[in-house]
Design a protein that fits this description.
GDP-dissociation inhibitor activity, globular, alpha+beta, single chain, five-stranded parallel β-sheet, Rab_escort, FAD/NAD-bd_sf
């Protein structure tokens, strides 16, 4: 589908009346649209100027994120070397230029708090070594070179502050000198014991102190250096946008319906936390959690269960909330027979709505949705995709490619070509100067120029990603996936949502946690989020040692952090864009909400506008039901054929479609 030429890739000339073109970049809504269009038989060309999938929905390894940070910190104006492409614009046409640089990310700042000794020459483990030439099969020299590069990191990972000799390289002379030193120490100890007498109680006290010291040493987290983080960089999958999937949300329904769920794996969020009076506590959610909780009195348990039962069918009892529709949900909770402790849990950890802006109906809807999602996959309503949120757009891209979609990364677009008479967009011109015709164009908001977006007012999202050495709430299990909402200190300020991921999510290395902070922006990301970070974590080793000397292990320590602001273009009306052709459809970037419902709704709405008679992301055909025309031979994997000569017919079994869909959902639930 592509012709390679030097460092770039050149598309063969495409011109087809049924072609859907998706100029860069491509996030979750665009990927869903591409998958739905390809599934319905449309020809799809999906181009992206970046070298990775997902746009601002992507996930990166640690080294990949460092490259992304550097790219956004060193933004420069992109100059066009040649304007030969303008010669392709006819007199009856006009061009809509697209942005050449991404302005959706601002105020990027990364900070390293871990020890950076021997970190300059460390390379990421698993990185491909330099090969002498293409096609050379002898890799013994490359393997030896890779081993040599890893040696300094291995010695650093032992956690020794001085230049000690590793056990593997100990010599006979080292052993002899060590033995002589130990004999001398034992002799002096015997002499000391002969000159002094000890009381039995003092001995017992000493034993107790030794035991407590040993226990504290065992609980103390392993010291992680920056060199180790770089070396294990491929263990990290760091999301630019932090979200969870509601177990009965629109995205889960779409994944199971379209069978895209077979391309991904998920883990259940294990606990929901609350931050109250300077402490982090676990919130009881399910009926079993409520009655097993030791932090609630029996009266509070009855109050909570009664209110949650009401929320499940609140529409059937309008008299209970009719007089409070204009009030905030926080004010409504105060009128119910709930303690302040329960009001706090419901508002910030169950409904998860704004204390100042959400009315009573919004709060009741959010509480009901939370309760309906409980128990489908676990004790909490949320799922998290293994390897990060960036896997979801890639899953839909894979489905699009299965049904014939064409994908081109590192392929930018110069402009859209509009016919002056009809006012419709008829083609695009890429950076090679090629003209590609299509009937429909889907573009992400960030690539529209300032001339097109003169009347658009954007919101901003403050984001922070931390690598820490401990969980924010340590328990017996170190494999916890947690969500925590920290309410604002001042009224009118946004609450901060925190999602903590462990190594079993395949997003971070062992003995570390990946912590995502998200809130609506009022200032820069660091100004918005760093005060909350300081409440929960220690930013330097000195503070941690002071806490330990005070009798406890102290707060979890931040090893590395990055702060950035991301544009939130959700909710922008189409009429806000000037002179936009009717067959050009605009998708927004990530929003600030916890779930993905907005992206799914937007994708389905745009698809129905383009193809109102087509079903949105129908289940794929059963490979056994596909009939191939021609010589009657069947390929090895008919389910992945994108041939135009294939057609689907209903299965001779009456319940084949229902059984296959049901099995898919049952497997997903398991």
């Amino acid at each position: 589908r592509e012709r390679e030429g030097g460092h770039g890739k050149r598309l063969s000339r495409l011109s087809c009346s049924s072609l859907l073109a998706l100029p860069p970049p491509q996030g979750l809504p665009e990927s869903i649209i591409a998958s739905a269009c390809s599934r319905s038989g449309q020809r799809v060309l999906h181009v992206d100027s970046r070298n990775y999938y997902g746009g601002n929905w992507a996930s990166f390894s640690f080294s990949g994120l460092l490259s992304w940070i550097k790219e956004n910190q060193e933004k420069t104006d992109v100059r066009e070397d040649s304007e030969d492409w303008r010669k392709l614009i006819l007199e009856t046409e006009e061009a809509i230029s697209l942005n050449k640089k991404d302005n959706t990310i601002q105020h990027v700042e990364d900070v390293c708090y871990a020890s950076q000794d021997l970190a300059e020459d460390v390379k990421e483990a698993g990185a491909l070594p330099k090969l002498p030439a293409f096609g050379v099969s002898d890799t013994s020299e490359a393997a030896q070179e890779s081993e040599k590069e890893c040696l300094p990191v291995e010695s650093q990972s032992l956690g020794t502050e001085s230049c000690e000799t590793s056990p593997e390289s100990v010599t006979c002379n080292d052993l002899e000198s060590t033995t002589e030193r130990k004999d001398a120490e034992m002799t002096s100890e015997r002499e000391h014991l002969c000159d002094a007498t000890f009381d039995q109680s003092a001995l017992e006290t000493g034993k107790t102190e030794n035991v407590s010291t040993a226990e504290a040493a065992a609980l103390e987290p392993k010291k992680i250096t920056y060199a180790e983080i770089v070396k294990e960089g491929r263990r990290f999958n760091i999301d630019l946008v932090s979200k969870l999937l509601y177990s009965r949300g629109l995205l889960i329904d779409l994944l199971t319906k379209s069978n895209v769920s077979r391309y991904a794996e998920f883990k259940n969020v294990t606990r929901i936390l609350a931050f109250q009076e300077g402490r982090v506590e676990q919130v009881p959610c399910s009926r079993a959690d409520v009655f097993n909780s030791k932090k609630l009195t029996m009266v509070e348990k009855r109050m909570l269960m009664k209110f949650l039962t009401f929320c499940l069918d609140y529409e059937q009892h309008p008299d209970e909330y009719q007089d409070y529709k204009e009030c905030t949900f926080s004010e409504y909770l105060k009128t119910q027979k709930l303690t302040s402790n329960l009001q706090y849990f419901i508002l910030h950890s169950i409904a998860m709505v704004s204390e100042a802006d959400s009315d009573t109906i919004d709060g009741l809807k959010a509480t009901k949705h939370f309760l309906q999602c409980l128990g489908r996959y676990g004790n909490t309503p949320f799922l998290f995709p293994l390897y990060g949120q960036g896997e979801i757009p890639q899953c839909f891209c894979r489905m699009c490619a299965v049904f014939g979609g064409i994908y081109c990364l590192r392929h930018s677009v110069q402009c859209l070509v509009v016919d002056k008479e009809s006012g419709r967009c008829k083609a695009l011109i890429d950076h090679f100067g090629q003209r590609i015709s299509a009937n429909y164009f889907v573009v992400e908001d960030s690539y529209l120029s300032e001339k097109t977006c003169t009347n658009v007012c954007y919101r901003q999202i403050s984001r922070a990603v931390l690598i820490t050495d401990q969980s924010v709430l340590k328990t017996d299990s170190d494999q916890q996936i947690s969500i925590l909402t920290v309410p604002p200190v001042e009224r009118g300020q946004p609450a901060v949502r925190i999602i903590e991921l462990c190594s079993s999510t395949m997003t971070c290395m062992k003995n570390t946690y990946l912590v995502h902070f998200t809130c609506s922006s009022t200032k820069t990301a660091k100004e918005d989020l760093e005060p909350v970070v300081q409440k929960l974590f220690s930013l330097n080793a000195a503070t941690e040692r002071e806490s330990e000397n005070g009798g406890g292990l102290g707060k979890p320590r931040v090893l590395w952090a990055v702060y950035f602001n991301m544009r939130d273009s959700s909710g922008i009306d189409r009429n806000s864009y000037d002179c936009l052709p009717s067959n050009v459809y605009v998708c927004s970037g990530p929003d600030c909400a916890l779930g993905n419902d907005y992206a799914v709704k937007q994708a389905e709405t745009l698809f129905q506008e383009m193809f109102p008679k087509e079903e949105f992301c129908p289940p794929p055909p059963n490979p056994e039901d596909i009939i191939y025309d021609g010589d009657g031979t069947q390929p090895e994997d008919p389910g992945f054929s994108s041939s135009s000569n294939t057609k689907t017919e209903p299965s001779p079994k009456e319940n084949s479609d229902g059984d296959s869909c049901k099995v898919s959902e049952e497997q997903h639930e398991e």
